[in-house]
Amino acid sequence: MTTPASDISTLSQALSNRPLSFGGVVPSLAQVADLGPPRSECGIGCLMPWNGKLYVLNYVSHRRKTGTGTGLRIIEGDLRMSIHPDAVDGTYANRMVHFPSNQLIIGPHVIDAGHRVRTVEALIDIRLCGTARHLSDPDNLVYMLGMEGELFELNVHTLETRQLFDLTRVLGTPGEGSCHFKDCYSAFGRLVVVNNDYHEKDFLGERHEGTLAEFDGETWRVLERKPFVCVQGRGSFSGTIFATGWDRASAILKVFTAADGRWRTYRLPKGSHTHDHKWQSEWPRIREVEHERFLMDLHGTFYELSPWAYDGQVWGITPISRHLWVLGDFCSWKGMLVMGADNASPADDANALCAEPQSGLWLGKTDDLWQFGKPKGWGGPWWGERVEAGEPSDPYLMTGFDQKVLHLSHEHSEPVSFEVEVDFQGNGAWHRYTTLEVPANGYAPLVFPGGFSAHWVRVKASHTCRATAQFHYT
């Protein structure tokens, strides 16, 4: 049986009209800003499927720079892309669907189901980094968070705004000019915000300006003075909130469990030190990219993350691969995983090797991520920390890596014994693996057998001292 010539012609025409793709990158979908001046970033801050289209929103380095050529772009189902006529320059990395009004909020834009775009003029010059459901009037209001700590209420019907707080004052976060807030999320009667201030003084322990904080509608409470970059959850569906950050010792995952109203701290390896600055950690996310499954991007590593916590314990965390990307956002669209990068920036003419601000979109399948760089990394619960005798460290991730070694050292005039415990079930049941004695003011390594693993590992010291416990996974 032969194929009719007309069918072959139709197929050939369809293939010839298909956009070129190189390893999942589609050049025709590149986000390219004007050559300038001014020259700035053209990072992809938001990706959001909405009623058959994919909305893409860029960000510049710092607030609006008229004439940079960034703004709201729309990708149609046939992968044709256009810039929306109501696009505005700015720094935006927020997106959320407001279900009661059936509207998409992306940057300063509010978009209805018919793709009618309204722009909140009062928020154009705010570096919007987060949108969250309102605690007391979720049908009509949302929270809008700016990177400088401005927290607004937005009426999604009238587009009226009201500033509620200057979080630089409320939370004491001076930071870069004012601060560097990154995200917000609300559930279980609390609004959670994160700020990723981190510079050399933070590394040296001379200041602590990063922030994880929550608001119950009346009072703010600072949970951590460390840099955090993302906060996300599935609301009442799973009973958890996840916040990601880091310190000099390791990457950090904080988990709130609604069943007992507690925050718990878990530590994970750093896949790369290129994320150890507030400017270089933009914008690692937690997103649901397959139904009821999270993909977590944290400090250069992709992880599987279950939204559930059973008996208050989290164990469904598995490393997938390492990467060097700056991924402003990623989402599922038409069966694909779509990731938006921040690839090349003249950085206000500081980078003389880059002239054209541009960023690419990667289109593929979630399972493609397993073909990227094999998981490895380093970190641990302590880096020159004062530890109390017999007090266990935070749990540190152990599963999903190959070769493992633990480096122990301390500053104490007598030998110190370090007890290494593992939780191989992931349910908080700890078992002693071994005890290692380290000489006075000394150092000792512990090499784990090939193939040995558990969900979590932690360490205890026999004496109160200043100690370091760092794992290297290769």
Model description:
The chain is mainly β. The chain has two domains: 23-371, YVTN repeat-like/Quinoprotein amine dehydrogenase (Methylamine Dehydrogenase, Chain H, 7 Propeller); 380-473, TM1070-like (Hypothetical Protein Tm1070, Chain: A, Sandwich), CATH 2.60.290. The protein is 4% helix and 44% strand. It is built from three helices and 37 strands. The protein has helices at 5-17, 167-170, 200-203; strands spanning 31-32, 43-50, 53-59, 72-75, 81-83, 95-98, 103-106, 109-111, 117-119, 128-133, 141-146, 150-155, 161-166, 181-187, 190-195, 211-215, 220-224, 228-233, 240-246, 251-257, 262-268, 286-290, 293-298, 301-305, 317-322, 327-333, 336-341, 358-359, 361-364, 377-387, 396-397, 404-411, 416-423, 431-438, 443-447, 456-461, 465-473. It has a four-stranded antiparallel sheet with strand order 2-3-4-5, with no helix packed on it. It has a four-stranded antiparallel sheet with strand order 6-7-8-9, with no helix packed on it. A hairpin with a 4-residue loop joins strand 6 (95-98) and strand 7. The model has no long low-confidence stretch (mean pLDDT 92).
